Amino acid sequence: MRVRNTKVTYGLMAISLHWIIALGVIGTATLGLWMTGLDYYSSWYRSAPFWHKSIGFTLAALITLRLLWRWINPRPAPLPHYKRWERTLASVVHGALYILLLIIVFSGYLISTAKGQGVSVFGWFEVPALITGLPSQADRAGFVHYWLGVSLLGLVALHAQGALKHHFLDHDNTLRRMLGMQSRTTGERDA
Q1: Sheet strands (E) in 31-148
Q2: How confident is the model at residue 8 (pLDDT cuts 50, 70, 90)?
Q3: Which of 17, 22, 61, 124 is the most buried (most CB within 10 A)?
Q4: Is residue 121 situated within a structural domain?
Q5: Helix (H) or strand (E) holding 126
Q6: What are the C-alpha distances in Å from 103 to residues 39, 141, 146, 149?
Q7: Is 3 domain-assigned?
Q8: Over the stretch 53-108, which tens digit does the pLDDT of each residue have?
Q9: What's the domain range around 121?
């Protein structure tokens, strides 16, 4: 498999970033929702936020890398049988996913730095608290972080439904391309 995309397939870099980010988003969101129910006496009360923040900052770096890769290495052309509304919806959902991810990371940063403390990333380095002391910073950023996170999970579900629709109902190569699999050759609907 090639590292770079071609006109008809995704390369190893795009596929790897897609699935690593997907797993990271689902894992971080699950951890975030779970840790909201922890009480002060839980053994995870302090460590769960550390892992949530560390993975969140790692995701921010991977998302940035994915956007840069997408810019220098254009994605494959849409399959020729896609309807106009499918292309439009896919573009809107992809754009919204990136925007929500970046806002969620930034709002998490605002929550974490509200008291002027930096954010440790796996204990390797600290992201400094450059924005701090805004009125109700942690509460407002927390509201945005939570509700955009829930919205993101809804968009992820819509994105997955679209891929499954293409695979099981349309019998095309949409999902196969993002899994790095060979295109179907019999009954193929793709160019």
Answers
A1: 119-121, 125-127
A2: confident
A3: 17
A4: yes
A5: strand 125-127
A6: 27, 10, 11, 9
A7: no
A8: 999 999 999 999 999 999 999 889 888 889 999 999 999 999 999 999 999 999 99
A9: 12-179
Cα distance between residue 116 and residue 144, in whole Å: 20
Contact 116, 132 (CB under 8 A): yes
User: Angle at the Cα of 75 (from 54 to 96), degrees rounded to 5?
Assistant: 50
Q: Is 74 helix (H, G, I), strand (E, B) or coil?
A: coil
Q: What is the DSSP string of 4-52?
A: S--SSS--HHHHHHHHHHHHHHHHHHHHHHHHTT--TTSTTTTHHHHHH
- The model's pTM is 0.89
pLDDT at 181: 84
- Average pLDDT score over residue span 150-169: 95
Token pair for residue 159?
A: 């994105």
- Length of the chain in terms of residues written: 191
Tokens (6 digits) for 49: 């936020």
If one counts the domains in the chain, the total is 1
| Domain presence at residue 26 | yes
Mean pLDDT of the chain: 92
Cα 169 to Cα 5: distance, rounded to the nearest angstrom: 26
| Residue 76 lies inside a defined structural domain of this protein | yes
In degrees, rounded to 5, the angle at the alpha carbon of residue 74 between the alpha carbons of residues 171 and 62 is 95
